[in-house]
Amino acid sequence: MTLQHGTHTTGTAGRRRPWIALVLLGVPVLLALVGPLWAGDDSPQQDALPSQSPGRGHPLGTDVLGRDVLSLVLQGGASVVGSALAALAVGMAAGIPLGLLAAGPRRGLDETVMRTMDLLLAFPGLLVLMTLAATGHREWTGLVAVAGVLQVPAVARLVRGAALAPGSRTVVEALRMQGHGWAYIHLRHVAREVAAPLATDAGGRFSTVLYLLASANFLGLGLPASSPDWAVLIERNSDALFTQPAAVLVPAGLLTALCVGGNLLVDRTFAGKRRRA
Predict the structure, then answer these.
(1) Residue 65 lies in a domain
(2) What distance in Å separates the CA atoms of residue 171 and residue 221, rounded to the nearest whole number?
(3) CA–CA separation, 248 vs 95, rounded Å?
(4) Which of 36-45, 91-100, 231-240 has the lowest mean pLDDT?
(5) Within a domain: residue 147?
(6) How far apart are CA 159 and CA 156, in angstroms?
(7) Is the pTM of this model over 0.70?
(8) Count of structural domains, the chain
(9) pLDDT of residue 45
(10) What percent of the chain has pLDDT over 90?
């Protein structure tokens, strides 16, 4: 009886976990998608004081500049999610072809690509973003491009490893002996072998990029202080945490839900694959 009860409890928890992950991930993503459509004017209000407590006209109060926190939160999600997705796309767009090139028959090319990737791995992400901030360039495009380039080595290594798996190599050699070209082999066969691990990695890498960008913005190394980005809101209003906690806790909670929900969803995907294996 005890064993049956434990199995039932575990199964129930396993069924609930995806819903928890989807809710945690879905709320901030939904705000990122439709929040800017609902947001009002985020400029400082003449009738509002800095760090004003929640009240009539300002459900979440105001920030240190006298701007409505609710409007800022609704607008800031697009920056958070959009920046992470854009940086992830940059990393994938550069890492996938480099990984496929490294997995090709030319050993010299493989060595050159992978040694370059090892060199890129030696640079800490926040240090690179700190250097970018020191130059005075804090545009969104520059921040996203640098964060994306920092993901290239990991993506390239993953693609190369999947393409060089024993089963994949056997099929590739057989297709090459049949006279098929590089493009046919990699687009028709290797792409299928790489797609599954790459899709799984993308979920976890989204959280990695999100953490990197949020850390940079929180430390003042990323977007300008006037940005409604959630991490920037936390940094700008941290001194008023005890007088106007909503300006810090609401964006912090949304960032936490986004990271935790993404990680739970990836863990669930991994667990499902292990059970099927």
Answers:
(1) yes
(2) 47
(3) 36
(4) 36-45
(5) yes
(6) 5
(7) yes
(8) 1
(9) 66
(10) 43
Of 268, 267, 236, 273, whose CA–CA distance to 252 is shortest?
236
- Amino acid at the residue 50: P
pLDDT, tens digit, 9 for 90 and up, residues 231-262: 999 999 999 999 999 999 999 999 999 999 88
CATH number of the domain to which 213 belongs: 1.10.3720.10
Residue 167 has pLDDT above 60, yes or no: no
Domain residues for the domain of 245 are 22-30+60-275
